[in-house]
UniProtKB/TrEMBL annotation:
The chain crosses the membrane at residues 349-368, 380-405. It comes from Halomonas tibetensis. Keywords: Membrane, Transmembrane, Transmembrane helix. InterPro entries: DUF3422. The lineage of its organism: Bacteria, Pseudomonadati, Pseudomonadota, Gammaproteobacteria, Oceanospirillales. It comes from the Bacteria. This is DUF3422 domain-containing protein. The keyword Transmembrane applies. Pfam families: DUF3422.
Length: 410
């Protein structure tokens, strides 16, 4: 059996929902998991429950008397969900239990989402969402009309978003799944929106970078070879700043895209239908959430396009500089060729003169030798001397010319 078979198979059961019956309150808090926040929360949970949590697990469901606590670890955030049965005539929107209140107060700067779902039975609810303090709420019939969900998406003074779910036909299993979807929509929507401040900040930066790129492009069309070096330095500086900005934002924008896909999927899984004249929950959420995602995606694409434009300008300038260098090299080679040709002509002239001089001295020696023999009483007939000495002189001159040719070849 493959060593990972059991682990991969059990991913089907990795993140179960809390299954329960109405009426109940479902408190849900999501914290950005940075600086060991998840470990601190699990340590506090262990102190309250008296049980050591499984640090390697992705989630765990703990029974705390009549309450049920679930913690769940994600890539970038950590969630706590506490199910509290609602007593008869209990408060509609109670404050969080002490454990959640303490954790939220301790890590308030990391708290990215806080939601409270009130689950009521159809037979016991008050018949109007405004009776629960919801102003101009959006509402949808979900789960093939087996439940109705209402929310005005306004935060309370404590920063909690309230949702009212009226159950008509959902069993404990489907009710747990439905509330999980609603909580995931809120959590992933907030995680996706984390890129919005960064996108707005980068929008101003990219505008400045685009103006700088336009100026560099104009300089590139007008500059000569002498100004290529400072222009190349300016383009390289702009490219480095864009790369640093991309490294800072790339992961955040990619995460936004992934979280947005989850939100869209969870809204589709609600299987909504309209309730009266109220806008549907999915419509209300997507009306502002989708433009946020599109704006972040546009900034991401704008940044990539700008980086590609800078890279093309850099390549264009380098290509132009390379062409100019090649032209200079061609001129240098042409000059060297002309100089070599002149040297070769001079060398040939020197070689010819050398052979003439050597021939002159050689025949002068022959003449002196014949005169010496004549003075010693051994006269030689000129015709005989010419027959003997002419081939010898020509042979010596030929050997000298051959030696000069061999030296040139090497």
């Amino acid at each position: 059996m493959h060593p990972q078979r059991a682990r991969l198979h059990n991913e089907l059961h990795a993140r179960p929902s809390i299954y329960f019956e109405e009426p109940a309150h479902l408190h849900h808090y999501a914290f950005l998991d940075a600086d060991g926040i998840a470990a601190d929360i699990l340590h506090r949970v262990a102190e309250v429950t008296g049980r050591t949590p499984d640090i390697e697990a992705a989630q765990e469901i703990l029974e705390l008397g009549d309450q049920t606590l679930k913690w769940e670890r994600h890539t970038e955030f950590f969630t706590l969900t506490l199910l509290v049965p609602r007593p008869a005539r209990g408060e509609s929107w109670p404050p969080p239990p002490p454990l959640l209140a303490e954790v939220a107060a301790q890590h308030s700067r990391a708290l990215i989402s806080a939601s409270l779902i009130l689950v009521e039975a159809e037979t016991s609810w008050e018949g109007d969402p405004e009776a629960y303090g919801l102003r101009d709420p959006a509402g949808s019939s979900v789960g093939d009309d087996d439940a109705t969900v209402w929310s005005d998406f306004r935060l309370t003074a404590a920063g909690v978003n309230r949702l009212l779910l009226v159950n008509r036909g959902l069993n404990a299993f489907r009710l747990g799944r439905m509330t999980r979807r609603l909580l995931e929509i809120e959590t992933y929507r907030m995680m996706a929106s984390l890129a919005l401040p960064l996108a707005k900040e980068m929008s101003l930066e990219l505008r400045d970078h685009e103006l700088e790129l336009g100026e560099l492009s104009e300089r590139n069309t007008e500059s000569d070879a002498a100004n290529a070096k400072p222009l190349l330095a300016a383009i390289s500086s702009l490219s480095a700043r864009l790369e640093r900005s991309g490294a800072r934002s790339r992961q955040r924008f990619n995460a936004t895209e992934a979280y947005a896909r989850i939100v869209y999927t969870r809204i589709d899984e609600l299987r909504e239908s309209r309730v009266g004249d109220s806008p549907r929950l999915g419509t209300f959420i997507l009306r502002r959430f989708r433009p946020t995602v599109h704006f972040c995606a546009a900034i991401h694409q704008r940044q990539k396009s700008l980086a590609e434009s800078v890279a093309r300008l850099n390549d264009l300038l380098r290509t132009r500089a390379q062409v100019e260098i090649e032209e200079q090299n061609s001129e240098i080679l042409q000059s060297l060729n002309e100089r070599t040709s002149s040297q070769l002509k001079i060398q040939k002239a020197v070689e010819g003169l050398s052979i003439i001089v050597i021939s002159y001295y050689l025949f002068s020696l022959f003449k002196l030798g014949l005169q010496s023999l004549d003075a010693l009483g051994m006269p030689i007939v000129p015709a005989v001397a010419a027959v003997i000495l002419a081939p010898l002189g020509l042979g010596i001159i030929g050997v000298l010319a051959w030696r000069i040719w061999r030296v040139k070849q090497h």
